[in-house]
Predict the structure.
Amino acid sequence: MRHACAWARSRAWCDPAVTSSCASARTARAGTPTWGSPRGILEPIPFGPGPTQEQSGWSFRVIEDGSELVLQKLEGDEWADLYGFLPQPVPLIDVETSNWWTSTHPRSLFVTGLIMGVRGDDGTGTLLCDWSELSLSEQTPAGTSVTPLEREAIPELLATRFSLPGFTLAADGRLISPTPGQLSAVAPCAHSLSGKAGAGRDAARLGAVGTSARTERECGSIGAMSDPRTALYGSVRLADVDTLAQVDPGNPDINDGAFHLIRRHFDVQAFGVNAATGNAGDEMIEEHHEADDEDNQTNGHQELFAVMTGHALFTVDGEEIDAPAGTIVFVRDPALLRAARATADDTTIFMVGGPTGVPYTISRWEAALP
C-alpha cells in the first residue's frame, strides 16, 4: 500500500463522462496535502491507466499497482505518488461520513492545523500550512520554494495572496475570522472556524474557498457540505433562509414578521417546517386554519409551534396562550383557527406540521410559490 501511516477517503469530484466509478482515495503520503490542495490535478482526468495528461505545464498519469490505481504527478524528473484508488464504487454515505470526520474530529489535521491553498491561472500552486511548520509554499513545474513564516504574517498573507481580508490574530495567537458578510463579499461560500492554539499548533481551521457563484446565504453560513436541497445533511443560520417576502413579494399572506421557508430551503419531504421572526407587536402567524381546503390552500395538517426566543401571545380557537421562550404550542385539530403575535423584540417561532394517516404532501400554498 502507498500510504505511510494512515489512510482517509477524500471527496473526489467524478464526472460520468470521464470516470467509470467514484473510488475511495487513500493518501499516498501521510500529512502531505494532495487532492484539493495546490499539489493535485487542476481538472478531471480519465479514470484508469492511460497516457500522460498535461495541465498548465504539469504532468499527471494513472498507473496500475496490484489492485490499486495510482494517480501520479511528475515532479522534476521523477513521478511522485499522490493517491491510490481501489476501483470500486463507494456508497455516498461513506464519502460524506469520511469528510465529516476529517472536518470535525479532534485528531484531524484539518481541525488542529491551518491550511489554505490556491491555484493561479498559470497553474502555480500556493499553500499556507502549519502541518509541520508554518510556511508558505509556491510550486511550479520548475520547482518548489518554501518560506518559513512567523504567525504575525498570516493575516496579511490571507488578504494579499488568498483574497481573504479581515482576519486578525488574538493576543494568545488565535486566528480570528471576519464576519460572514465580509468573507462572502470576496469569497462566496468561504467558511472558517477559529480555536485556541495548543502545543505549538494553531487550532484555527480555514475551510476551502468555493468557486461557485452562489451567495453565502444560498450556501448556508454554517457551511452545509453541498447543495442543501440534495445533501444528506446540512446546516444554515435561520437569517440566511429565504423569506416568503423574498420569494413572492406580492403574496397576500405576508405579515409583519419575517416568514422563513425552511422546508423549501432543504427540500424537506417528510413534514412541513418553517419559522417566523419579528419584534414586539409584529403579527408572527396570521390567523388561519389548516383544514384540507383547496380554497384556503391548506392540506389538513396538525401543527406544532415552539417559541425559541423572545415572547409571543398565541390565540387558538379564541383562547389566548402566553408563550415565553421555551413554550411549545400544539394544535391537533386542523380546523381550529390559530394566530400568534410577538410581545417582545427578537422573537422566533419554529413550526412543524403534517397530516395524520396519510403521506405528507407539500401544502398547497407553498406548492403555488414561484
User: Anything to note?
Assistant: The first strand starts at residue 24 and ends at 27.
